[in-house]
Amino acid sequence: MMSANKLIISAAIFLIALFSNASADPDTEQLDHLAGRSRTVYNQFQTETLHLQLQMELQDRFFTTAHQNQMAETAKTALSDLTSILTDQNNIRIFIEEYDQTDWHVKFGETGLWKTSVSNSLQTQIRILNIKFWFALTRSIPARDTMLTQILNEINDLQSQLESHNLTTLKLSTLYWLNTPRSKNQLETLLKSLLIRSDLPHSTAAEIQLQHIRFRNSPRNLAPMIQAITESAELTENRRLILSAAALSCRFHQDKSLLSLFETAPQIKYPLGRLLFDKMISVSLNQLPTAVTPLQIDTAVAYTSAYPDKFDTLIDKISQIPRLKTPFLLYTAGLKQYEKNDQQAIRYWIDSANTQSRTPSVLLKFTPAQISERALRYAYNLAIEKSIKVPLLEEAFESHFALTGQNPELIFLYSQALRINSQYEKAAKLLEELTTRSDHWAQKAQLELIRLQIATTEDHSALISQLRRLAIETNPDTPAQSAIRFEALEILFKLESTDLTSETAARIISLVPENDIPPSLLFYKIAALQILDRPDQALECMLIILDTGNCDHVPELILSLDENLRNFELTETSLGHSGLVDIARFCRDCLPSPETDLIFAEYKLLAVSPEEDLSSVEKILDEYKNNEPPSLNYLRTKARFSTFQGKFAEASGLWGRIASIYESEHPSNSPPSWQWWRAKYYELENWAKLGPDQSKTIPHNIQVLQHSFEENIPHLWEKKLISLRKKHN
Amino acid sequence: MAPLIDIIFLLLIFFLVTAKWRPEESHLPLKLTTASAQTIQAPKAIPLELNITTTDTGCSVNFSNNSVTISDNTIDKDLQNFLESLNNVLEKHKRLVNDPIEIYCDTKVKWLYLARIYNDLYGAGFTDITFAVYEK
Q: Is the pTM of this model over 0.90?
C-alpha cells in the first residue's frame, strides 16, 4: 500500500517537472509569432503613414500640422507595440543565451532557434529605428537633432553587428535631416562610398540614387534614373520605390518622367493623386501656380473623381486661377455637374474641348472634337426639351465648328433645333446655305425649308408644287435621296389629305411609288383609293401591311377599316370579305379592346355565309351589352346581327338610333355624313323586310329623302335608296 | 259646480258642430300615356326643321333654305306668306301633311309668335308637330 502511494507521488512529480520544463523552453512557434507581430505592426505603420512619408519626400515638410500630428501619433503607437515585442524577443534570446545545460546544442543550436531569436530582435530594432526616424521628423529643432543623433548612434551600433541595406538608407536619411556641421560632410562621404559600390541590390542602389538626387537637389539626373527604373522588371515591382520616384518627379516638376512612371505602374496614380490633392489644398492661392504642373493637377483630379466632396473643394480652389483649369479637370467637372446643373456641365465640356485643343491633358483620352461633340449632343437634347437653352446650343455649335470645321449634318441638326424652338429666321438662313451644296444635303435642306414654311404660312399651294417637284427630282435608287423622297411625299400627302377629293386622291395615287412603299405612305394611298371607290385595291394595300405582321400600324389600319365600311357593301366578292376579316382579326390580336372586338365582329358578320357559326360574334355582343351609353360600333354590329337573325324590326330600330346619334353630332346647316345615310338606308331596308303592310310607307320616306337633299346624297347610298324604293313601289 | 260628464258632452257637441268634412276629390282631366319599351315604331319621313329666331321687329322662320320674317305690325300677312312658302317646300320635298315637323325655337322669341305659328300649322292640317329640346 505504501509503495503504491510512493509510485503515484513520483509519477505526479515527474509529470509536473516535465510540463514546467517544456513551458520554459522557447520554441519556433513562439518566435515566429513574435516576428509576425513585429512585421504586422511595422507594415501597418508603413501603410498608414505612406502619404505622410511621401509629403516629406515631396516637399521636405508635412503639408499641415494635422498631418504632422497624425504621423507622431501613429509612430508613438507603433513604437509602443514594437518595444513590447522587442522585450519579449530579447527575453527569449537572453533565456537561450543563459541556458547552461548540456543539451543546449540540441535544443537551440541545431534547431536554429538561437540564430532566429537574434535575427528577429535585430529586425525589430531596425524597424523601431525606422519609426523613430519618422517620429523625430515630427519634432522641432533641437529636439529633432537630439533624437536623430541618438538614432544615428544606434544605427552605428547595429551596423557593427550586421550589414543591413535598410540601415544604410536609413542612415542616409538621418544624416540628411540632421542639422549639424558634421552631418553634411558625413552624408557626402557616405554617398560617395555607396555610389561606387557595385555589390548592392538593385532596389537599394536605386533608392540611394534617388536620395542622392534629392539631397543634391539635381533634377538633371532624374530622367535617366527613372528611365532605368521603368526598364527594370525587378524595380517596377517595388511600389514604394516607384512612389518615391514619382514624388521626386513632382518635386522637380518633371512631367515627362512622371508620365513614364504612370505608364509603367498605373496603380500609383491613386496614392500620388491623394498626395497632390493634399498639397494643392494646403498651399495658398499665390503659391498654387508654381506649386503644381498641369499633369499634377490632372493626377489630383483622377484621385478626387471618386470623392465628390474633395472634387468640389479642388475645383473651388482651382477655379480662382483660370489658367490652371486643365481640360481633364473641366471635363470631369462637366461629368460631376451634369446631374445638378446641366447648363454648367455643357459649358465645362465646351471649355474642356477648347483647352484640350490648345494644351492637351495627357490623362484625358478624348480628342477636342469628341469632347465638343459630347457638349453638342447634350446641348441639342436640352434645346429640344427647353427653348431657354438655345443660346447654349448656339455656343456649343460655334465651338464645335471652330474645332472641326463645318459639317452639313450638324448644320442640319442645328437648324432643326432652331425650328423646334420657333427660331425660324435663323433656321432658314442655315438651311439656305445648305441648299447651295451639290450633295443630298441640298435636297434635305430644301425639304426642311418647306417644313419651316408650312409652320409659318397659311397658304400651302405653292409648297405643294415644290414638294411635288422635289419628289420627282430625287433619285429613288440612291438610299439618301430615296429617304428624302419618301419624306417629301409624306408631307405632300399630308397636305393634300386635308381636303381629300377625287382630284387630290388621283394625284396621290399618281405619285405613290410602285414598290417598297413604306406603310406611312401606303395609308395615304389606301385613303385615296377609298375616296375613288376602289375598295378592292385599297384592300390589296391593307393586306400588304397585314403581311408585315407589324402591330405598330394597327391604329391606322383600324381607321382604314372604318373608312372601308363606307363602301363595303359594294365589295361583293367573298375573297374581299375574308381578307378584311383577316385584317380585323389581326387588329384585335395586336390591340385587344372593345373597339377592335366589335370591328372584328362586324366584319365577321359582313363576310359570313348563312350557315356559318356566329357564336363568337354573339359572345362579343353579350360582353358589351350592358355598356352605357352603347358605342356606335356596338349598335351597328348589334343591328347587323339582328338582321342576320331575322329580327328586322329590332335592326331597323337600332339603325334609326344610330342615325339619330349621327344627326345630333353633325352641324344642322351641313349635309349629313355618309354614316347617317348608311344608317337611314338600313333602317328603311330592315323595316321593308317585315312585310307588305309595313313596307308601304318606305317609298314615301325615300322620296322625301331624295327631294329634301337632292345633290347632297352620296352616290352609293342614293343608288341603293332608289333601288329599295323601286322594289317596294 | 257642473259635473265633469256635462263638460265632456259639451266639448263633444262643440267639435261635432264645428268640424269641416273633406269633400270627395274629382278625377283629374289628364290622360297619361303608357310607355312600351318593346314597341318599335315604323320609320317616319325625316322631319322638316323650322328654325325660329328673334329679330328686332319680331321673328324669323327658316326652313330648307327659305326664310320668312314675321313682324309685329304685319303679323297676319307674314304668317300667310310663311304658310305659302311652307307649302312650296312641302311640294318640292313631296311631303304630306302627316309627315313630321320639328320646331327649333330661340329662347328669346316671344311666346305670341310661337303660339301663332303653331296654331297656323295645326290649322293647316299638320298633326305631327314636335318641339326640339336643347341640352343646356
A: no
